[in-house]
## 1
Amino acid sequence: QLVESGGDLVQPGGSLRLSCAVSGFPLDYYTIGWFRQAPGNEREFVAAISWSGGTTYYTDSAKGRVTISRDNAKNTMYLQMNSLKPEDTAVYYCARRKGYSHSIYAYDYDYWGQGTQVTVSS
C-alpha cells in the first residue's frame, strides 16, 4: 500500500513536503517514484529514489527545487518542494517500480497511491 499525504494550498514561492507511507511489500527491491497530474494533462514524472541504494533521479524542471528522500525506519518517502509555482498545481502520486532503475513512464510502475492535491495560488 502506498499512502500520500502533505498536499495543501500554498502561495507562490512557498514550500511543501509530501510524504508517501509504504507498507505490504519489501522496499529493498523497488524504486519509488513521484508523479504529478494536472487537469487535462498526462501524468508526468517528477523524481524517484531507489530504496536499496538511495540513488535519486529528477526531471530537469525539478532539479534545484525538489528533493526526494527516504526514512528506512518509517518506510516513508518524502518529496520536499521549494519555490513552488502555480504550474506545480497538480495531484501528486507516489508509485512503485520493481528493480533498482527508475523510469519516467507511468506505465512502468505497477502500484499507485491515491494521490494528494497540491495547489499553488495567491
Note: The chain is about 0% helix and 50% strand.
## 2
Amino acid sequence: VHLVESGGGLVQPGNSLRLSCLASGSDPDLYTIGWFRQAPGKERERISCVNADDGRTYYAQSVNGRFTISRDNAKNTVTVFLQMNRLEPDDTAVYYCAARFSGYCAGQYDYWGQGTQVTVSS
C-alpha cells in the first residue's frame, strides 16, 4: 500500500484544516488507516483511526471533539480525511497517515506516508 498525505499548511488558532490520505496499491480497502502526528521534541502520537472492517473510529483525548476522521473506499483507492477544527498551537506537528492489515486500530502500522506539516500560529 502506498500512502500520500496532503492538505497541511499554516493556519491561525481557531481555524480549520482538512488533511487527506490517499491509499493505493493492492486492496487498500482491506487496510485500517490511522493518523499520527509528531511535534518537535515529542514522541509520535496516534490521534485517530478508522478501521477497515466496520468503519469504527478512534480519537485520542487531545483531539476528541475537534477532529473527525472519515473514509471513502473507491474501487482501487481509499481516501481518508481528517477534518481538524478549532485548531490550537499545540496541534502544530508533522501529520502522517499509516496503514495496517487489520481491523483494529491498535498495534503496529506497516506502511507510512511522507507526512504533511501543520502549523497553527497567529
Note: The chain has a mean pLDDT of 95.
## 3
Amino acid sequence: QVQLVESGGGLAQPGGSLRLSCAASGFTFSSYAMGWYRQAPGKERQLVAAISSGGTTTYADSVKGRFTISRDNAKSTLYLEINSLKPEDTAMYYCTQGHNLGRVDYWGQGTQVTVSS
C-alpha cells in the first residue's frame, strides 16, 4: 500500500531554514507527481509546491523564491527546502502523491512547522 511519511518539521525562528522530507513506499516513485500542501489553524489546506514525474515544478505565489521542491527517485524521497521562514509559514505540512500535477490521490500524516521567536 502507498505510504508517505513526512519528517523534518519543528520549531524554527523567523528567517531560519528547514528541510522537510517525505519517504515514499508502495508504488513506483519515479512515475508519479508529488507535492507539498500545508494547512494552518482555521484555514483551508493549500498547495505549496508540486513536482511532476519529469521534474517540472510549480509553487504557490506566497512561497516562490523561498521554497524549493525536489525529488530523489533513487531514494524514493521528496524534499521541501524552506528558507527565510516567516511566522505565516506555521502550518501542518503534508506530502502528497498523484498521477499528475494538480491531482492528489494519497496524503501523508503531516509534519508540523512552527515559526516563532
Note: The CA atoms of residues 2 and 26 lie 4 Å apart.
